[in-house]
Design brief:
mainly alpha; 3 helical TM bundles of succinate and fumarate reductases; 4 helices
Length: 129
């Protein structure tokens, strides 16, 4: 007789009580994918800013007047900050073994998430206020 398979068929991530380490890992992957999508716009902005002084000034004017472009640039910077900070946390964990158990890993994840939140708030204040 075949044993019953107890693995979940439908995995609802909102119903699972994930530790902060798992949430950070998922958000790290999401931020990496978002950076991949926004990268084309960032390269366009870089090309536009480096083509001439007049285009650079036009880009600054567009950043000050177009809210959508400002929001895209803000999200790009927030994504870079979060992805970089959590990436450094993962590299430290992989190479040095710091934060491998649940307690220290959760503590370090909270620290890195709070730092990225503070930087995001500072960037928001700088861009929109």
């Amino acid at each position: 007789m075949k044993e019953k398979d107890n693995r979940p068929v439908y995995l609802n991530l909102l119903a699972i009580d994930l530790p902060i380490i798992g949430i950070s890992s998922i958000l790290h992957r999401v931020s990496g994918f978002a950076l991949f999508l926004i990268f084309i716009i960032a390269v366009w902005m870089l090309d536009r800013s480096l083509s001439s002084e007049e285009e650079f000034l036009n880009l600054l004017e567009d950043l000050n007047s177009l809210v959508l472009l400002k929001v895209i640039f803000y999200l790009f910077l927030v994504g870079i900050v979060y992805h970089s900070l959590i990436g450094v946390k993962k590299i430290i964990s992989d190479f040095f073994g710091i934060g491998e158990d649940l307690r220290s890993g959760s503590f370090i994840s909270w620290i890195y998430n709070v730092i990225s939140l503070l930087v995001s708030i500072l960037l928001f204040i700088k861009f929109f206020i």
